[in-house]
Amino acid sequence: MTVPAPAPKFAVLRSWKTAPYLVGAGLAMMGDNIEHVITYLVLWNTFHSPILVGFQLVSHWLPYLLLSVYAGALAQRFDCRRIIQIAQILFMFVSLCWGILFLTGTLQLWEACVLLVLHGLAGCLWGPAEQMMLYDFAGREQLPSAVRINATFRSLGILFGPVVGSALLLTLGTTWGIFANIVFYLPLTLFLARTKFTGHSREGLYGTGRVSLWQSFRVLGTVRRDHVIMGMLILAALASVSIGAVLQTAMPVFGNELTPTGADAELVYGALLFALGIGGVVGGFFLEASGWIPPTVRTAVISSLTFGLFAMLFAFTGSLVVALIALVLTGFSQITATSTGQAIVQLEAPPAERGRVLGAYSMFGPGMQTFSGVTIGALGTLLGIPATVVIGGAVLVAGTLLTALYIRGSARRAEV
Questions:
Q1: What is the DSSP letter of 8?
Q2: Residues whose CB is less than 8 angstroms from the CB of residue 181 and which lie 6 or more positions away in sequence, other chains included
Q3: What was the pLDDT predicted at 6?
Q4: Among 401, 400, 402, 375, residue whose Cα is nearest residue 389
Q5: What was the pLDDT predicted at 11?
Q6: What is the pLDDT of residue 89?
Q7: 107-135 burial code (b ≥16 CB/10 A, e <16)
Q8: Do residues 353 and 76 make contact, with C-beta atoms less than 8 angstroms apart?
Q9: Which residue, 134, 184, 160, 161, is CA-closest to 345?
Q10: pLDDT-flagged residues of the chain (< 50)
Q11: Is the backbone of residue 384 left (phi > 0), alpha (psi -120 to 50) or beta?
């Protein structure tokens, strides 16, 4: 693959056409996580249902698995501004409905399930169109930078979403806190009403013909013939299935095991989550500021390897200090692997199929996190949570090495 020449550092943040979009996306991601903090607490206190806890995970990620390619086809066919606005309005509608149900005290289990599914559908619809807009804003030369900064801002939203959500709970309570959450989706929605970029304006290519679920999946045949894109999809799927959301879900267990005698287990738990989150944020800014790590296949492979290795180190160690350092490095490796893989897929995708290919990446990446609940549920019950994380890290390392051999072998056959 051809790597674009390095763009000026943080160029996308110095551009008034791009910076508001990135900031708005980060705020919307914060709103997404604030909603989780508030609603998950209310749902547990109301229903005390472990099955509902599992449904929360499945409902969030299953739409990515089943509908991401279709969402990508929509992004390829229509104005991406409007698709993202529809997704943001859906997020706001869900928060509004939660607030009304909390206020009236009429929340029922079926209503909670419907709202959880709608929230997952909004996130699925947002993903491919968001990436299409990044290419339109930044162009090929600055795309890797835009993807890194966007991933970093999303990590900031994920990191500080629980903090802001907790603050809203303490100051406004659950009902008015979820109403206030609507505000976080407004900046991106309003900015998209003013920008001229559509996700297609740079190349002027829109998909044609009827968009159907079955037709949209035909892109997988195209992807299968491109060894670089296919390799990035496999790496994303491996990371999601083997580790994915397992680390965050399992963090309370590690918090209890790593808490020194006499220390506060909740404080240790919070420190572990913060270490993982700050690793992603610092990693994103470091990648952009240093320019030392190019967006290449080699980078994607090495960062996926270190992602698995540092996760294994975290699960192995009994030292809190080592665990915190390992989590920071895990977060660093994760954002490097994710942003690099996503940039490569964007750069390698045929322009006429970019939306559908990005949808395929969402299906293989976030979508496969649907199975991380099965991973931690089944293996965690049989072997324990730490052993499950170790096995997940080992699977990611072994799978990454095999994927590297696949990409290299396919490249050699193409040269013959």
A1: P
A2: 31, 34, 35, 38, 95, 165, 168
A3: 60
A4: 375
A5: 72
A6: 97
A7: beeeebeebbbbbbbbbbbbbbbbbbbbb
A8: yes
A9: 134
A10: 414-416
A11: left
